[in-house]
Amino acid sequence: MRHVDTEGYEGTAEDDDSEDSQFEPVVPARSSARRLLFDLHRIPSFLSSTRSTQHHDALDPFLREGIGGVAVFPNRRIRPIHPEPWTARRVSVKQFVRPRGLSIPRRIPARSRVAARALVASGLSVGVLLAGCAAPGPEAPVAENLPWSEIEEQAQGQTVSLWMYGGDEQGNSYVDEYLIPAARAAGVTLRRVPVASTSDAVNRILSERQAGLTDGDVDLVWVNGDNFGTGKQAGAWLCGWTATLPNMQFTDPDDPLLNDDFGTPVEGCEAPWHKAQFTLVYNAAAVPDPPTTLAGVLDWTQANPGRFTYPAPPDFTGSVFVREVLASVSGGAENVPSQFSEADYDRLTPALFDRLREIAPSLWRGGTTYPQTSSELDALYAGGQVDMTMTYGPATLTELVAKGTYPPQTKVLQLDEGTVGNASFLAIPSTSGQSAAARVVANLALSPEQQLASARPDVWGQFTVLDMERLSPADREAFAALPSSPVVPPYDVLSRNAHPELSAQWVGPLDDGWRRNVLAGR
């Protein structure tokens, strides 16, 4: 199991430096140039020629903020190979900086080394080359406004690669057993491409966009939040297409969760797929008198040492837990401005980091190490090492209890102040050459039939984005007939007093602040 220790380094039981297979792209690159792009976007690079030191000023902002001021490597912290993190140095093509959370070899694979040498021979470092390729501009391409029948005709015979988080077994099964057959019936071949992090897909798209590709390897992405905002800022998404989807008629056009994604206006750049609610989960056999507020959860943690922990940011679930604690110590979510500013950060976060440092000695393993991912926290809960876990996808709880993975007394912890809620979406990259078929798949995923299937607790248990008042009587009855879960309350109960996400601009500073002030601050 990976973990993040209090010095900020990741560890495993085995040395992973030789695991070259993990560096292979999940979809075979369609050319050696594409293979090189895949390699380069994962090594934000100190690869250099002998002229690298004169490009220090260009490399430094590239590494700090990404190409063109965009966070090209979201949710990745870079481990320097030298003591000064942001100082350029001459290094061999065989060396590079190791992004946190990735198992990658210390040598570029052979197929790419030839191309890399060619780049180096040109007299430019890889980092400077990419920084110099910051164009194209950030303007998002707008989809051609065609009749739906023409879009369906164009989609015939096309293959769509759907890149989505691969750690959700129920989600994988739903796509394989329900969405793929539906796409096949519509004349489209749908391929599910599992990724460890959505940022991997975003980085791939940005690399392809910088290269000017129009037939990239990613055609559809399960996305929301920071990854969507980062991509939109860089023009990574096709926009202006969702209004043409026939099944959008079944959604509420005024639903704020569907119009705003972590403070970023959706503006037709992604189609809604499911709603979600951040949820704390506990074992009632071990916690017979659970707290009812997040402040009470933190107090309970100190009163029960070793029985609680949370994933280390930038894990998605760990990040949202930190934001929920920010709302709690600020006196409520309404006291945290949704839009980020340095002044608000400086004013509000000292109390946040103080409180997280206070509870750290009472966490699992004394707070000396944190689960790297929500899956690792779930494993600790399933194994009885902690009494609580947390999730942004409570839909999976029913099946986890039914299979015996989770304790039979697993319950959802309802907090008086509510928790944060959002929606997840399907986005089409601006580099996809299969956008017509991708639109067909997104429309299928939004259909009452597919939304009903994914809402079944024994399938995926997701919360629908459809407005019941806009459905036919038969469809409304079908949703009403869904079996209730003995673990998860209905969405209207779970989302009581829910508050919206902060803007994506809060995420990075809070994650970095946690690492500096909590992880390294003890």
Automatic annotation (TrEMBL):
Residue ranges of the TM segments: none
Residue numbers spanned by region Disordered: 1-26
SUPFAM superfamilies to which the protein is assigned, alphabetical: Periplasmic binding protein-like II
Segments of skewed composition (Acidic residues): 12-22
Protein name: ABC transporter substrate-binding protein
The organism of origin for this protein: Rhodococcus spongiicola
